[in-house]
Design brief:
By secondary structure, the chain is α+β, with helices and mostly antiparallel strands. It contains twelve helices and 14 strands. The strands form five sheets. It has a five-stranded antiparallel sheet with strand order 4-5-6-7-8, with no helix packed on it. Strands 3-2-11 form a three-stranded antiparallel sheet. This is DUF4055 domain-containing protein.
Amino acid sequence: MPVQSTNPDYDAHIAEWKMMDDALEGECAVKRNQSNLPKPSGMTEAEKLDGVGNKYLYENYTARAQYEHWVRDALRSMMGLVSRLIPEIKLPSGMRGLEENATSDGFGLKQLFFRMVRQAISHGRVPLVVNIDEGGEPYFSTYATRNAINWKVGSQGGRQDLILSVFLEFRDNKEDEYDHDSKMVYRVFKMIDNVCHSEVLGEDGATIEDLRPLGTTGADARLIKGLYYLPVIYCGSTDNSPEVDEVPLLTMARAALKSYQLSADYFTALHQTSHPQPWVSGLDDSVELSVTGPSAAWDLGPNGKCGYLEFQGAGIEAVRTAMDDQKNAALEAGAKVMDVGGTESGEARKTRQNDQHATLHSIVITVAEAVEQALRYAAEWKGYDPEQVAFKVTPEFVMPEVDAQVLAELHKGVMAGTISADTYWQYLTTGKLPERPYNEEADLISEERESAGINLDKDDADDKPGAGGQPANRADDPPLGDDRAA
């Protein structure tokens, strides 16, 4: 089979992914695709009689239709919540540069995480590839969902694992520096004799980059360590297996598309209602009418009659109701908080927001696990212990609520040396106290006091906490008041 061959699951879902592409790009993209708004039969028959002269009928029909940007707004709102999250990153010293330069276009791990969350929400699938540049440094590439055209799972060491991944890439046409045309190539990863190999082929199957084992660096392509797996992760909306996951915003996209189709009929009906069609009959051959409008007078002769064909619009209200139903369906998808004109109670809104957070919760965890796995692949490729790598994200989307009284008591504890400054800061920024054993908290207090230049071994009452965790009195200090016990 040729390199252009696609996975059956790809063929089954490509229409959904293209729908999401159009939904995110907006109204212009939706209207460019004629399949999004089927042509009414009357317009089809009119174009059979005169394709050029009657083309305007469908053009006007499409122009009046309105596409609501619910999907794009929902994604922006979700990413606003995700942008508050701060990843916890742990890397070996030789890989610390990835925090600021991790992607093929020079962005850090945090931006990589945000990109992947965005694509997981919008398309339910993020192909992530680990690679090594010419300088021997690892980097990560993500592909558009529709460009990961083929994959295959087979037996590897007694377990089921990836044995083939094919990606579509676009490269600039270097013949003209001002031209924006590009050519398609296919990057292939496959297992040969339990070692991962990679090559790049053209549309005609010709070799552009020779087949080579991954794990090679430098000009001499010396084999450092042949990878026994494909450094490819298919991050999904629910898990990171190669199977295709559901698209979280697909229900909303379908509702928006149906609302767009209904709006074409709705606004066309309104247009026809406000523009009645004049008619005349019984005119003599000598009578000629060539001008119509409120400023024109007609001489119909002794036998002429005239009137208006008015569009009654009995179904307009039904169409508008159907459009409202689609809006409610989009809201119930749990992806966007919208103004519904006061018909939604506060409790219902809160429940829907919690559903949205639950969806984001699973997506954030799944993406964080994918990034961590990619970092472990890179560490193993570079010869580091993968266990030294960690990428964790706590999916907390609610703004922290800090109790001023608790914060004041924590501040007293920090000043008295019984609470670490880290505990105080975590409560201030997250609204939660850190969960750690007493001995870890005591060690943290000691480290903070040592870094501040306080000698804990000095037998000096000035540096030791007094009874009840209060600092001991100095001779020149004013006496403690009666509120000391508080």
